[in-house]
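anyone seen this seq b4? input:
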Amino acid sequence: MKTKMMNISRKARLVSLAAVAAIGFSFAAPSVQAAEGEVEPIHVDWSFEGMFGTYDRDALRRGYKVYKEVCAVCHSMEYVKFRNLAEPGGPEFSEGQVKALAAEITVVDGPDSAGDMYERPGEPKDAFPSPYPNPEASAAALGAAAPDLSLMTKARPGGPDYVYSLLMGYEEAPEGFELTTGSYNLYFPGHQIAMPPPLSDGQVDYEDGTPNTVDQMAKDVTHFMMWTAEPKLEQRHRMGFQVLLYLVALTGILYFTMRKVWADAH
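predicted toks r here
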């Protein structure tokens, strides 16, 4: 009987330790392997990686500026509202700044009391405007429908590394490569992409004096796109760390409780 109870307690300890290990592994970044014929994305040491990762507020603000002045010409972010820019964990613009940014757009609203639609300045509650009314209009204007960027870093294998690599991957097509349409991109599947190179040095002016190189702008807008795809990342990291500490403490309590209960049995 005593041997059976000791086996049960041993199993209980193993289960507790396995739970702790499972939580730890859940924070490990999955490795990204390039498919055959594709080039593995460039890895960047992002500030938001790892269990203690956080967003760089300055990078988020610069990234929003790049999106607004460059990407928003073709791409939408339908799941992001102006008020999100002031929320903790994001760019954290002031309420006044958010109101000013939202007021730059015009929104068709209504109907009013007469049943008519009307135009009004944008408000913090409004979503980022789409440059085209529907995907068909986007495809007709650009040759291919420009995808929404709200969740792009979570929707593509490689995540932010892939998005950054794509922005940096425009090159001259190698000899023997038949480029039938668009541009050559080293990291895009098939290496032919309809989107022309979107960034060029000095294209966006940074108020904080950060060099506005293609590399820097690509990192900043990717940083911003990671936040739009996962705005609660910092909150999730804090909660996960608290759960991990709780499980470690619980494992210790269970272990010493087991030792106390079975002290007389040895």
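Residues 233-261 form the longest helix (29 residues). Residues 1-35 have pLDDT under 50 and may be disordered. kinda curious what u guys think
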